Amino acid sequence: MRIHSPSLHELHAFAAAARHGSFSKAAEQLCVTQGAISRALRKLEEELGQTLFVRQARGAELTTAGREYLAQIEPALQSLEAAALAQRAPLAPTRLRLSVAPTLASQWLIPRLPDWQARHPQIALALVPYQREEDFGAAEVDAWLRPAEAHWPNGIVADYIVGRAIVPICRPQDIAAEPPLREPADLLARPLLFHTHYPDHWRAWLAAVGVEPERLDTLAASADFEQVAMLVQGVLAGLGVAVVQRCLIDDELASGRIVIPFARPVEVGGGYMLCTRRAAQSSRALRQLREWLLEQGAAAD
């Protein structure tokens, strides 16, 4: 039996161009060139003996014949797509092994993982043990989310995700305590809690908000802690005030247990970086993880 229907390539090109009113947008949707769309439609019109589009400077408009043809074929194309999806074997689940700095994992990443699971149900994230001194040679790790370093080993690609914005924190009752906190320099009258690995954060924040340089020469730690979670606990215990990364205190702010006395975030160097092997850049799962983390980080900073 002779087949009279056009090819699926031509029909999909026609339907996409009709939906968008544009050959170029149809080409983008179908991941082909605009020339391929034009050739497919020209061939379709020749086969049907009908003009389906009126070409215009800013797009293409269906003729009466084109509108009638679209109404006839579109249900069939949708049925074919539905049948293909119904019969297609499900994608094999993918497992990405991610090493994450502990505080970032508990305070920032894990609360966002339901969104990741909803978007990418076929890609399971497994959080593997974090190593402060990492040589990136572990074959059992696919990616690392860790503090920035001055230099990365050859073969490692690092993308900034979140964590450069720092803010001061205290308990709500600390704002009115004597002497009250009316301006940033008043924080210098309180015990200052420092992060062991980022001792310059207090100086950086105070200088950025205009505290006189001579007053910064007397900065001294009342106590210091190795993790932001410990700093927060120190503030809650009434040991003093601290400067921390804004992205790591969502829960405490939401509960009202701590407050930001001066809402003037300051960006410092560093932050948390997503590190992947250059050789693994073709991994679709890793690309999706990178895009998702960049989106989440942009919304948090």
Write the layout of secondary structure elements.
Blueprint: H1 8-20, H2 23-30, H3 34-48, E1 53-56, E2 59-62, H4 64-87, E3 94-100, H5 102-109, H6 113-119, E4 123-128, E5 143-147, E6 156-162, E7 165-169, E8 192-195, H7 201-208, H8 213-216, E9 223-225, H9 228-236, E10 241-245, H10 250-255, E11 266-267, E12 272-277, H11 284-300
Parallel strand pairs: 3-4, 3-5, 8-9, 8-10
Antiparallel strand pairs: 1-2, 5-12, 6-12, 7-10, 7-11
Q: In angstroms, what separates the terminal alpha carbons?
A: 64 Å
The CATH superfamily of the largest domain is identified as: Periplasmic binding protein-like II
The SSE string, one letter per element, is: HHHEEHEHHEEEEEHHEHEHEEH
Number of helical stretches of at least 4 residues: 11
Strand content: 15-25%
Mind telling me which CATH architecture of the largest domain this is? 3-Layer(aba) Sandwich
Spatial sequence of strands, sheet with the most strands: 4-3-5-12-6
Structure class: alpha/beta
What's the overall geometry?
elongated
Contiguous runs where pLDDT drops below 50 for at least 5 residues: none
Number-wise, the strands total 12
Mean pLDDT: 90
Radius of gyration: 29 Å
The tally of structural domains comes to 3
- As a percent range, the share of helical residues equals 25-40%
The CATH topology name of the largest domain reads D-Maltodextrin-Binding Protein, domain 2
Organism: Roseateles violae
Domain HTH lysR-type: 6-63
Protein name: LysR substrate-binding domain-containing protein
Keywords: DNA-binding, Transcription, Transcription regulation
